[in-house]
Structures are given as structure tokens and as C-alpha cells.
Amino acid sequence: MTTHRESKEIIHQSKTKLVPKEIKNLISGGFAGMVAKTFVAPIDRIKILYQVTSTPFRLRDVPNVAMKIVKEEGLSALWKGNTATLIRVFPYAGIQFMVFNKVKYIFVDKHEREHDVSTEPNSEQKSIIRRNTYEKDRKFGLTPVESLISGSTAGAISVLMTYPLDLTRAQLAVLKKKKGPNDGFVKVLMSNYHNGGTNGLFRGITPTLLGMLPYSGVAFAINEQSKRYILDRHRRDPTVYEKMVCGGLSGLFAQSMTYPFEVTRRRMQTVGVLSQAKDTSINVLGGSVETKVAQDAAKIAEQHIVQEEHLRKSPSMLKVMKQVIKEQGVGGLFKGLSMNWLKGPVSFAISFTTFDLIKEFIEDLEAKELNMTISISVNMYNN
After folding, report:
1. Contact 149, 102 (CB under 8 A)
2. What domains appear along the chain, each with residue ranges and CATH number?
3. So what's the pLDDT on residue 80?
């Protein structure tokens, strides 16, 4: 017969085996980002090709551009650079969701203490993580400002920790898929570092951060507050469909507000690559690729993707923005936005919903295991 102390020890040991919530958020967020990015990769690649050139964008031309890429480079070329994207997006999305939820529950715990509600569960079953977090979410959700702060913090930290991967991915997306050996992810990444040091790995970080702070803040805030609205209005958790709608709306608004920074970032990231037009896919657009930025790069770049001299003379964010406006007008800073209105909501809807589903799946497994342990322990104690 098992003693009461032994039963409690068995339950305690089972609870210590639960996956820390930070790791669950990291894993769930990482896989959610990978699923979403793979789904929209073809749209993303075509969008980048337009962003880094002066070719006028028309949404009706996109299918023809896609078919031309497939004809010249093969179907897999639509996913050119996607491996680099996945390498980047797992830590990026994972860190983003992990940090957001960490900051979120700092606010939630603060609200809980202010309301003088005990943090201790009422029973062994209520100690299950999912139940605790759901109860906290129901009672002490974030305010809009807190959602904005949590999202902005998550976006900034995730960008700083993974930016060299994003730079490499953008360069690979512009490069043409060859029949022979292609410039691989590691080769391009090491070339950036070898020729430019730390500065070479973080070229374009300024517009990225300036865009990411409101972008991530608004996206997470709208998603969080939309789900909170459904919870308060209908007294139930959002359905999968409602979560997808919330995620889609958040992506639509966030990307529209910060799109000029994305265009600027892509120009700065790929300026060295554009100097070698024959090695890129930009000819499929059918327009001029000789932007002023590309012309400057061509004068100082030689045969490789990134050159040391070029990196030292890399144009500033303001210079790139002014040049885009000079070439194409203010509308140039929003070129490809209509593609983002298609891609963004889909990507965010998939990402936020997949995150919730994977996290719930992990927590359901933990709940079943813990409940089984409690049941076995109770039976052993009674016998």
C-alpha cells in the first residue's frame, strides 16, 4: 500500500517532467512559422523580386512571372531560398512567440496579484498548465497597450537574434536557380561575414527594427484583442475559424502600416546581389533592373555576391528611401503591397492558428499523462 506522502511524491515527479511553457512556446511557434512560410513562399519570392527593382508592379502580371520562373528554372525555383527561410523562421517565430507569451504573463500575473487572487491551484487537476493559463487568460487578459508592448518586444528580440539569417534568405531569393551547384545558405552567410564582419551580417537592420516594432506590436495586439473580444462576448474560446480570421486581420493591418520599411530593407539587403544581374531572376519581371542603387553597386562589386568595398559604401536607409521615391514616386515604397494583402492574412492566419493547435496538442498530451498518474496514485493509495 502506498502512503499519502509517496503518492504526492509520484505526482510531484510527474509534474516536474512537464515541458516548460517557454520551450512549448518556442517549439509551437517555430513549427507554426515554418508551415506558414512554406505555404506562401512562391508569393514571397516574386514579391522580393519586385521590391528590389524599379519594374512597375501589377498584380495581374504575377501569374505570368510565376510561369516564367517555372519555365526557366523549374517548379522548385518558386521555393528558391525557402530552405534559408525555414532555417531562419524556426528560431525567429519560436523566439517571437516565446517572448510574447513571457511578457504577456508578466502582465497577466501582475493583474492577478492586483486582484488578490491566489496563484495556487484548487486541486491537483488545476495545476495542469493549460488549465491555469486558460483561467488566467479568461480573468486577466491584456489591455491593448500591453498587447502592443508584448508584441513589439517579441518582434525586436526575435529580429536581433536571427537577422543574419533573414539577410541570407533575401539574397538567395533574388539569385537565379542554376542547373549546376547553387550558392548555398552557409556559403552566402559566411561570405557576408568574411567581407563585412558584423556589419555585413546586419546590413539593413535599421529599417527592419523600425518596421518590426509597430509591425509585430500591431499584429500581436490585434490578434490578442480580437480573441479577447470573442471570449468576452460569447463566453467561450474562439473556434479554429475565428482564430484564423483574427490572425488574418492582424496581418492585414500590421503589414499595410509598415510596408515601406520592408521595401527599404529588401533593397538594402540585396544591393550587392543586383550588381550581378545575370545571376539573378529579376529578368523574369520583364522591366528594367537598373535602379540607382544597383548601378552604384555594379561600379564597386566584382564577381561575388558581396564585396568588401561595396559593404563599406552600402547606402543608408534614408538614401535608399529617397532613391525609391525619386525613381517610382511614393507608390514605390508600397510596391507589391497588394500581394501582401493576399499573402499576409493567409500567413498570419496559418501561423497564429498553427501555434495554438500545436501548443494545445502538447498540453493535451501532458494533461492526459498527469491525470493518468494522479489516477494511478490514488488507486495505489486506496489499495
Report:
1. no
2. 4-382 (1.50.40.10)
3. 78
